[in-house]
Amino acid sequence: MKIAAEALIGIVALEHLYILWMEMFAWETAGKKVFKKSFAEDLFAKTKGLAANQGLYNGFLAAGLVWSFFIEDSVWQENVALFFLSCITIAGIYGALSANKKIFFIQALPALLAIICLLIH
Q1: What Rg value do the Cα atoms of the chain yield, rounded?
Q2: Distance from CA of residue 104 to its chain's centroid?
Q3: Given its phi and psi angles, is residue 73 left (phi above 0), alpha (psi -120 to 50 degrees) or beta?
Q4: What's the domain count of the chain?
Q5: In this predicted model, what pLDDT tens digit does every residue of 49-96 receive, in sequence order?
Q6: Which residues lie closer than 8 Å to 116 by C-beta, 6 or more apart?
Q7: Distance of CA 8 to the CA centre of its chain
Q8: What pLDDT score does 38 carry?
Q9: How far is residue 26's CA from residue 48's CA, in Å, rounded to a whole number?
Q10: Residue 74 class from Cβ within 10 Å (0-12 exposed, 13-18 middle, 19+ buried)?
Q11: Is the full-model pTM beyond 0.85?
């Protein structure tokens, strides 16, 4: 189960690195493709700064998960991973309730599965 947890943590970290890239550097290109149903075309240029700020936060979440792979003490490694996965899960649940229900499945569910794997290994 530890391997499954680490694989899921890696997937969640990669997902949040992708979100960082999209929101910080490709908001008006890739962001338009991802959010074409949610945003009017003219809003992408106007919200570029806001998206970049959100991207930075997603980068911090990814950095925390990546950091957990380099912690040698297994208890601390698990605690750090659980903290960042919990933050992602809470953000995903909030996003699903406040913006789009798909966010739960894209963001919260993978983090929640990683939490479950960590807790039962």
Answers
A1: 15
A2: 11
A3: beta
A4: 1
A5: 999 999 999 999 999 999 999 999 999 999 999 999 999 999 999 999
A6: none
A7: 12
A8: 83
A9: 9
A10: exposed
A11: yes
